[in-house]
Specification:
31% of the residues lie in helices and 36% in strands. The chain is elongated and about 175 Å long. It starts with 5 loop residues before the first helix and ends with a helix. Helix 9 crosses helix 10 and helix 11 runs antiparallel to helix 12. It has 680 residues and is an alpha+beta fold. A hairpin with a 3-residue loop joins strand 26 and strand 27. Keywords: Cell outer membrane, Membrane, Protein transport, Signal, Transmembrane, Transmembrane beta strand, Transport. InterPro entries: Bact_Secretion_Sys_Channel, GspD-like_N0, GspD/PilQ, NolW-like, NolW-like_sf, T2SS/T3SS_dom, T2SS_GspD, T2SS_GspD_CS. Belongs to the bacterial secretin family. GSP D subfamily.
Amino acid sequence: MIIKNKALRMASVAAALLMAGQAWAAEFSASFKNADIEEFINTVGRNLNKTIIIEPSVRGKINVRSYDLLNEAQYYQFFLSVLDVYGFAVVPMDNGVLKVVRSRDAKTSAIPVVDGSNPGMGDEMVTRVVPVRNVSVRELAPLLRQLNDNAGGGNVVHYDPSNVLLITGRAAVVNRLVEVVRRVDKAGNQEVDIIKLKYASAGEMVRLVMTLNKDANPQGGMAGSALLTPKVVADERTNSVVVTGEPQARERIIRMVRQLDQDLQTQGNTRVFYLKYAKAKEMVDVLKGVSSSIEAEKKGGGGAAAGGGGGNSIGGKLAISADEASNSLVITAQPDVMAELEQVIAKLDIRRAQVLVEAIIVEMQDGDGLNLGVQWGNTNGGGTQFTNTNLPLGQVIAAGKAYDKNGSTDALGKLAGSFNGMAAGFYHGDWAMLMTALSTNTKNDILSTPSIVTMDNKEASFNVGQEVPVQTGSQSSTSGDNIFNTIERKTVGTKLVVTPQINEGDSVLLNIEQEVSSVAKAQASGTADLGPTFDTRTVKNAVLVKSGETVVLGGLMDDQTKEEVSKVPILGDIPVLGYLFRATSNTVSKRNLMVFIRPTILRDASVYSGISSNKYTLFRAQQLENAAQEGYLTSPDRQVLPEYGQDVTVSPEMRQQIEQMQRQQQNTASGARTFLQGNQ
């Protein structure tokens, strides 16, 4: 195409020159001779169309020459390299502005944090977080600091919890350090060796080996590096030592363990264990079973024969005996067995908790009775005799005849002694009449509060009462005279037998046997000559109770109504007159009985002391109340407990003897001092 218009040709030339100028603007000359660094920065900013902020401390001259033209990216890297040579660095801001500062201050500025996808390049200041998987960053960080430009703003920081490195510096240097970390972070050959001990205890062996390693290298490492320090763990169950680490470190530990695991000159090891709480004699039986299981497991499940002699002997290698005088155990065993038995003893020889068991027995009785009767008799024709009157007419007639015959009143006295109520009648000729009457009204309230303290899983009994004689037999001669009687004594009162077991959550399982017995005041009809009648209330049970709570064990509510009529047929049914030929007995009784229980766990001495103080103070208060009341004894004659925690009261005579003895000791000491002073 031919351009004929002159103006058009001039415009085309101008456009071509403009395009050529833009092409030339993409390349820059990098030659500066003795130029001020501030002018150099301004020139670069103008060429790259960048806003650059210069720190006031940035001063100096630069000399640099380049014979090649540089594109924009090369020109920017040239700019960074020149500043690095003269000790300065560029920090890019979020708004695109560049800031020139001293290199040593760049690491505390807002330099970018990069990762593997965009690591940065050249002399650009960056920070990179490098995770390390197989090597300790504490050991690796000092090595990297030697390779970093620390004077020029580089820095390496390690963070132990995450095992990561924080590397700051120029991108090229940081990338080189990351490559070093990648090559160093290799998993070592840390295999596991298990050493089965024959003679020594695994726990003791590990403690000894670790102590030797610590003494050999106070810094905690072996062969100059913690990475070469093996890990040594004891397996108490199999009496083995487990070693993991680098091959050289493992070999060293294995040799040490083999040398230490040697048989003793004597067959076994003897130790004495002084028990603090448990009984040695009872502990022997437990340890026998444990040692038998240990030996059977060591022999692959085979049984072990028990040897003779004191204690327990298995295979001639183990013996357990108790010394009751010192409450100690004497054990001879191989070290591995000894270690297991020692653990068992430590867990069993503990202070056992105690349990305070308080019982409350409440009983209320109320009864009304009425006995009324008339009996007739004739020596020729017989008579009526009613057993519900407790005074049979036949016996009264026989006693009357004995009195008429020889004047003896023994039979009458015996009858009168066994009868309660009023009896009236007559005996004349062949006829006799006896009228009896008795009205009773009984009320009885019983409150018993037995309490006892015992160990966990230990049976305890509490018994308060009296022994009542009971005739169980008699021997008579052929003439009827009584030669002797056989007497047994029966204990009546309050009895409490309890076995507590402390469970989880401060609950107590109680096996209880509670009994309250007494001699009945009223005898059953026709049993006066057979001995006393006993009232017995018994509870035998097992309950689960929370410590400090009161629960009811059981109870009885009993209402009884009894009516008994004895009469002469036909005559006893006549209105009004029939009362002369019959005997009536009416009885109404009510009885309520409840038994309560409350356990309290005593785990320490302070709780036990507090409960003891409460019981002691209550009893002392009752004594003081009794002493304040009028009676035959004056107040000085009444014995009162001292306050809780004070010494027991001493009688005046004993106190005078103590004071006299103290004065004699003081006089003797004074005379000795005078004698010594006179001889000096």
